Amino acid sequence: MNRFGSTDPFIRNEREAWIVARADQLGAKFAERAPKHDLEGSFPFENFEDLKASGYLKLTVPESFGGEEASVYEMVLAQERLARGDGSTALAVGWHIGQMLQLRLSGAWPAPLFEKLCKDVVAEGVVMNELASEPATGSPSRGGRPETTARRVTGGWSITGRKTFSTLSPILKQFVVTAGMEHSEKVGAFLVRSGPGVKVEETWNTLGMRATGSHDVILEDVFVPDAEVIRGLDYEKPEEPVPTEGVLLHIPACYMGIAYAARNFAIDFARHHKPNSLTVPIAELPNIKRQIAQIEVDLLTARSYLYQTADRWDKEVENRASLKPELGLAKYIVTNAAVRIVDQAMRIVGGLSLSRNLPLERMYRDVRAGLHNPPMDDMVLTNLANRAIQEAADEGDE
Known about the structure:
Elements: H1 14-40, H2 45-54, H3 72-85, H4 87-106, H5 111-124, E1 130-131, E2 149-153, E3 156-166, E4 174-181, E5 187-193, E6 198-201, E7 215-225, E8 229-231, H6 250-272, H7 286-315, H8 324-349, H9 360-367, H10 377-397
Parallel strand pairs: 1-4, 2-4
Antiparallel strand pairs: 2-3, 3-7, 4-5, 5-8, 6-7
Helix pairs in contact: 1-2, 1-3, 3-4, 3-6, 3-7, 4-6, 6-7, 6-8, 6-9, 7-8, 8-9, 8-10
């Protein structure tokens, strides 16, 4: 146990201990509600009321606007703990706090718009997300041009299209939409507010992460005034954009949390489960101990790399652009380890792990979603290979 009253070595100070304590309290509440929302595929509105009341929604908002200005490391701590209670809620709110942190780092929004957004988050519990995925393009990380179209009209733009994987859609009062700009090769970004022309179509019915509210959002001639255009026709991508990729560590943090919860459940089960064929709980069996050890290898390795990478991102400000392969590797290591951990936990518990009366089968389904969140495994491995080849070439040319 460290001097902050925790056995977790990644809690390094009083502020981090407080962030973790709040996330633990929220996660415990959410764990009780998770089975119902998973079964129904319903959105956990009450969870987001609790997140709002606790101040969690302002975790990454700048202090100057009333937020907590959390670092990437602190965000990872909070998200991992929250996901131990409910993966769906953690992943959903992760897009909000990640988006707020990205905007804080990049300064991409016009200052008055960003200030207004931050104050809305703090005062009203507004949540934010960027809707970029579409049926034809899939993940925006693959580079497809949006089929959603922005058409120039008097005083602004008219947006028409369909966005998929629109996490948090049941409670989004405002959100960013990417759209191809008519008569241009450029892709714009627009601040859209719920209202006339905006419809949520409840399409989200998935194997895992069933309570994230990631429905389709349909836009029909939605008007966006010029003052709320984030990236317009005059936008030119800077030669050296401000690195923001570190915010995506909220994704592996979530899956690490799910895996940690599965690990705890399996160990607790093994400590107490004693079939009548045995005189001791199954935790005493060599085979079960080996399975627990395999979980620990994955857990300790993945958590160490995740927190090391988050810490480097925060500290190595001038080196952030070159950390992109490490960020991708953190996601790759953690999500694949999380899948193995939950699988091993189910093997320890045995046939009972398939029961919907226990949380493991939900964790098993939820954790697999990590394989389909960005960055994808193939892109991570390609980036690592390209870097290694380039480094070898550079050394050979010396």
